[in-house]
Amino acid sequence: MSELIAIAERILESAKGAEEVELYVASGVDTEVQAYQGEVEELTTASSTGIGIRILRDGPSGAQIGTAWAGSLDDQAVENAIKEARENARFATEDEFTAFARPDGVAAATLALTDDTVASTPLDEKIAMAIELERLVRSGDSRVRQVDSANYSDYVAEAAIVSTTGIRASYARTGAYVSVEAIANDGNDDQTGWGLSAGRAPRDLDIAKAAADAIRRSTRMLGAVKPASFKCTAVFDARTAATLFAIIGGALSGEAVVRGRSFFANRIGEVVAAPSFTLFDDPTDARHFSASSYDGEGLACRRNVMIDRGELKGFVYDTVSARRAGTASTGSAVRGGIAGSPSAGCRALQLSPGEIDQAEIFRRVGNGVFVESLIGVHSGVNPVSGDFSVGVTGLMIRDGELAEPIREITVASTLQRMLLDVIHVGNDIEWLPGSAAGQTVAIENIAVSGS
Amino acid sequence: MGRGGEFAEVFVEDRTTSSAVLDQRRVEELSSGRDRGAGIRVVVGETTGFAHTADLSESGLLGAARAAAAVARGGGGGVREVALGELNTYPSRATVQPGDVEKTRKIELMRHADDVARSEGPSITQVSVALGDSTRRFVVANSEGVYAADHQVRTRFNVTCIASGDSGMQTGYRPIAGTRGFELLTPDAVGEAAQGAARQAITKLDARPAPSGDLPVVLAGGSGGILFHEACGHGLEADAILKQASVYAGKVGQQVASPLVTLVDDGTVDGEWGYLAVDDEGRPGARNVLIENGILTDYMWDYLRSRKEGRASSGNGRRQSYQHLPMVRMTNTYLMGGDSDADEIIAQTSYGVYVAQLGGGQVNTATGDFVFGMTAAFMIENGQITAPLRDCNLIGNGPEVLQRVDAIAGDFSMTPGTCGKNGQSVPVGCGQATMRLTGITIGGAAA
Fold first, then answer.
1. CA distance to partner chain A, nearest, from residue B341 (Å)
2. Is the CB of B205 inside 8 Å of chain A's CB atoms?
3. Which residues of chain B are within 8 Å of residue A41 when distances are taken between CB atoms?
């Protein structure tokens, strides 16, 4: 890790000129195994490094930023990228709010996000996990007719951010995942179900649970029917609820707000959600797989509460969106790799847990729909208008218990309304890959479209 | 190959990209990037080993080759010489190369789009314009003598508008994208996209919640092609077929769609977003008829899947970059035009939904259930297009929905999109003329 920061500082020294310079240097080692019919179908091993460069020029009416990146730390590639970034800066509009982050005195949390056993575990053991996962799913239930992919993957990722404005941050993270999709058949139709397990290292993975989830989710969908349209309460399981939280997190980005793209704009202090709904972003909670000591601009990550017992409290900001909004960065810059510039976003969303478990939520809801998988989130949710319509598979809830499986339906409402219509938040929590942890939530007034 | 591989392939790629964003009238970000590297795959039996590296030195390439060949442990060893054929070189078809365009010209075009969009009315509160281009050169060589070099230039331009009113905010979006150079972006084309995006957002301010339940749907030409991309395109990719993970497996020769449906995947449509002279395995792009008059004629194939079946690849082996393994992907997928008249199709629909633009979709190939989102839609009442509708998904089952096509017009057009599969994104085209489904489930929020 210190090696990466040393590289970054050396490049920074060489790039210095009249302008400010910010460098983001990242490296990663990835392994992926896909098992099929008891053998390795695909095995990918790779290491990569790259650099993202931003150059800031000050002008009479504000600053300009130019960006360039290179998928290698080769001297020539880096030199060319610096030249490109410098040239690109000349074409940006001078803007008084444009700036790089400067150290803000907030100390970075010390988090244990790496596990050396990712690198030290022999490849054969990783391969064996993928093969065992597939075997468990195929042999676990006679109705499983196919396992189309059983995957193991892991990574070791490191990054360093340095700038002429005093930023000097580096961080590392490891992760390991298994995932599997089962196709079950009862003689009539096929149904699918996913299982997954995630951790910091292979030893954290629960292969048996991932297999059991895929089997349970696929087999209990057998015989699913398409119901007629109706309105009801929908109970989202932890995984689908996490997707919902991530969408809401997008609208809570200060960048969406200052760009006029968030339905939360100008509503601070208003009631935007049910009283049971407290949503916060806390990358310093190491249980989140996406936890981080530093944000994408090298400021310390911190806990930010956006919605407190239904009241809109604030947004998450990076440096530029914060300046535009007249406030300070909340340490919430995220960036999509070397080619991405920082923007404001959530990375570790979580709800304050409720007091009842999923079974009790079913009992209290009585009749409704249990949503177990979503399809078409990117095509059916408009985060600007708030329109929400997604394809769903799941089960009916009847008399407080799970009943028959249902498929080929959509559930629809608006995000604004769904937040106010939350009637139960579960006390369960599932740590998931992605920017949000999952918890069971029940939301009323949902339109279910069927035949 | 020295380690016992049955098939080996080297793919060397050099990609430069540039992008620019104009947001709130500010040129916010010009970015340039370059990525070079090699992906090496070795196939032994049913196993594929793959490694990639950005280190194109001899030692870097040999290291990657050894990593990829690690799956060949226990293989026979020894050296096999491969006689490469003559290098097949495919030149870029762009007239104006991205590198030859002054950045000020790009910015002028983006400002023009912004001006046009804002001139549509004061309710346009936000305009964002993005321009991007990429130049991708690659050389691919394999142990069966394939040796090809391609030079692909792609250009895209997107306009996103937000209109604000008493009902909240609404969005409008128009893309322009092609396997072309800067000549794609004329001031007229850019202005038309900006106007379209702005008008779409303004119209939707009056939109009411879409209905829920089964209704007849008329899909406008162009982006409606996403229906076929999702309803059957992915299900006709040979990787899903060979794993029996598609509802279309084993159905070649069978009637899988209305007799009106003839569906083609065609990498050779010059200039379209999914155009390719040669695929990422060195196979020339081709026009492949998938469904003819409702009868399933063939699937789409890449090298690995076709080898298993002892047949030729159909030119559908694609990968996002040298860091990715190729797999079966669509190129430009379109429904052939029909004999009906677009206006008559609408006039003959007494009650239903007219979808003017689709925004993407997703499918579960094993069950056939799929969704696609409508981003511009209206009610049809008594044969007339009436009230605008808010965004929602439509949901159906591929094999059922394909049977419900009861009219296709002749006003064919294509639209660009980005297709995601197993974590890889590739540019694709979708095409279709105005057509009608007798029924599909509209996932709106109205009772």
1. 29
2. no
3. 46-48
pLDDT (tens digit per residue) in B334-345: 999 999 999 999
Alpha-helix residue ranges (DSSP H) falling in A233-310: 238-251, 254-258
Convert the pLDDT of each residue in A185-203 to its tens digit. Answer: 998 889 999 999 999 999 9
- If asked whether residues A182 and A252 sit together in one domain, one would say no
Shared domain check, A239 and A207:
no
The SS3 assignment for B143 reads coil
Q: Give the chain A residue nearest B14 (alpha carbons).
A: A71
Angle, CA of A129, A133 and A136, to the nearest 5°: 135
Where in the sequence of chain B do the CATH 3.30.2290.10 domains occur?
Answer: 7-204
Residue A87: Cβ-neighbour burial (10 angstroms; 0-12, 13-18, 19+): middle
Q: What is the pLDDT of residue B86?
A: 81
Look up the ipTM and state it. 0.92
Q: Rounded distance, CA A197 to CA B305, Å?
A: 30
Chain A positions in Cβ-Cβ contact with residue B209 (cut-off 8 Å): 412
Q: Does A228 touch chain B (CB under 8 A)?
A: yes
Residues A195 and A219: beta-carbon distance below 8 Å: no
- How far, rounded to the nearest angstrom, does the alpha carbon of residue B427 sit from its chain's CA centroid? 4
Provide the domain limits for residue A57: 2-219
DSSP label at A284? Answer: T
Contact B325, A42 (CB under 8 A): yes
On the CB side of B307, CA atoms within 13 Å amount to: 13
CATH class of B7-204: alpha beta
CB atoms within 10 A of CB A188: 8
pLDDT digits (tens, 9 = 90+) for B8-67: 999 999 999 999 999 999 999 899 999 999 999 999 988 999 999 998 888 888 988 888
Q: Which residues in chain B (100-159) have CB-CB distances under 8 A to chain A?
A: 103-104, 107, 125-126, 128
A375–B contact, CB cutoff 8 A: yes
CA distance B444 to B192: 29
Domain boundary among A193, A219, A245: A219
Asked whether residue B202 carries a pLDDT value surpassing 60, the answer given is: yes
What amino acid occupies position A7? Answer: I
Structural contact between residues A441 and A240, judged by C-beta atoms closer than 8 angstroms = no
Question: Rounded distance, CA A161 to CA B429, Å?
Answer: 39
Residue B76 binned pLDDT confidence (cut-offs 50, 70, 90): very low
* Contact status, residue A418 vs residue A443, Cβ threshold 8 Å: yes
Q: Residue B132 carries which side chain, given as an amino acid letter?
A: G
Does residue A247 share a domain with residue A190? Answer: no
